[in-house]
Design goal:
31% of the residues lie in helices and 32% in strands. It has 199 residues and is an alpha+beta fold. It has a single domain, classed as Aminopeptidase (3-Layer(aba) Sandwich). The protein has an eight-stranded mixed sheet, with helices on both faces.
Length: 199
């Protein structure tokens, strides 16, 4: 079990057809830029990284890693080696044994498929079973019904709405819907994800 002083160590998580590698800009930057080009990906993000905003988005991800204790992962197809998206651990509170999984995006052709549940299974298995977290949180834009439906299918519990929570693209003041999985929920959530992935 990690301690607050140790923090989160970079780790590679692999299985279920995907590989999650810690961000390495030199190795991943070009592939990330290519993967991020579809503006549909960024509709509910604070920044549109499909074009000119990419460098700002990438710099913010590096800053979060270097200065805020975040652990960004690049999602890679296990067989193809193609960059499929990214996700991260952030809002890490080791003293309370909790973290958030978010800033998640994938190529649109993968929406509704196996990649998201595969990534969430890897991330939550590591969070609960290696890092001994009590709680894993997820937050989504109140307008993003697709993301909310995906979280419900994962087995995350909807806990409420943070009203007028943050300002995103075009000055929109968003409501944020919060979900979580606790260590008590985890065995059933894990079983459901493994069944869904045909394990």
């Amino acid at each position: 079990m990690i301690t607050e002083a140790e923090g989160l160590e970079p780790v590679v998580l692999a299985g279920h057809g995907v590989r999650l590698e810690p961000l390495d800009v030199g190795r991943h930057g070009g592939g990330l830029r290519a993967a991020a080009r579809d503006p549909r990906i960024w509709a509910y993000f604070a920044i549109d990284a499909s074009g000119a905003g990419f460098e700002s988005w990438l710099a913010a991800m590096e800053d979060g890693r270097d200065n805020a204790g975040e652990l960004p992962f690049i999602v890679i197809g296990a067989e193809s080696g193609e960059i499929l998206g990214s996700t991260r651990y952030f809002h890490v509170a080791l003293e309370h044994r909790r973290l958030e999984i978010g800033h998640t995006w994938y190529l649109p052709r993968l929406w509704g498929g196996r990649v998201n549940p595969a990534c969430k299974l890897l991330l939550m298995t590591h969070a609960f079973e290696a890092l001994a977290m009590n709680r894993v949180e997820f937050r989504t834009d109140g307008r993003n019904r697709r993301s909310q439906a995906a979280l419900r299918r994962l087995g995350a519990i909807e806990e409420g709405v943070l009203r007028r929570h943050m300002i995103v693209q075009h000055g929109h003041v968003r409501d944020t819907v919060q979900f979580a999985v606790t260590d008590q929920d985890w065995p059933a959530v894990k079983n459901g994800l493994e069944a869904r992935l045909g394990e």
